[in-house]
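Pipeline run #58 for the internal structure catalog. This entry was flagged by the ingest filter as a single-chain record with no existing model, so it goes straight to prediction. Upstream metadata was stripped on purpose; only the residue string is passed forward. Reviewer on rotation: M.T. Logging verbosity set to normal.
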Amino acid sequence: MPSATPQHKQITYYTSPYSPYCHRVHIALEEAGVEFTKFDIDLKPGCKPAWFDAKVNPTGTVPAFAIGGPFVPPDQPSPESLKLAESLVLIEYIADLRPDSGLRPNDIELCARARLFITLSHDTLHHAFRGFFFRGERIDSILPSLDAFQGLLAPSGFAIGPWSMADAVVAPMIVRLMRLTRYEIGKYPVGEGKRLLKALSEPRYSRFMQYYESLWDRPSVRATWDEHTNVKMWRIHPNVTRSTSTVGH
């Protein structure tokens, strides 16, 4: 963790524990030691407050920041505050705010590698994550993407070797992939969660599993993961609720 430095503008962090994209930002905030006020937005249909779209993020998505302006209740955001959204934008902002956090490597080549890793992880890890949980694909469909993702990893350590913003970006999806499949949560057919965990325990995925263990041992990742809440929310969320056609197939 970086040493504490003065923070001149207050930050209100609009989030949801369900969202891996919010989790990315929360990890980065923890790593940087940034002070913030957290406000959960209920993303269930019909539950999101109208003021959020009107006064914070017109696209209606979290995570989002309200930065600066007067100190006001989070549900009464000031028009004087800067509004920012999109997880990668917010992580870059945090890295700029706390350049000693280690999120953005000082070495320009490592920094470029971190950004490249983030880009390529979208077509590998993100593709597997969305396919398994949201589209209900079987493990035979997603393992090639996980193979490709494993090939992006540095031989040891974190994504590019030292910890960086690349790890904050992918950790939430890997944690959910490894933790929620134990409960068979997702649109994939029942039993595929256990099959996936068994497949990942094979020697061919030893680097992937080493990486997961390193992420799981990272204090910022553990501190921002609420398994009980995530299990409860993911079990009932319509985006990942299993249809009768996938049960027992």
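catalog note: The longest strand covers residues 11-15.
catalog note: The chain has a mean pLDDT of 94.
status: ready for reviewer M.T.
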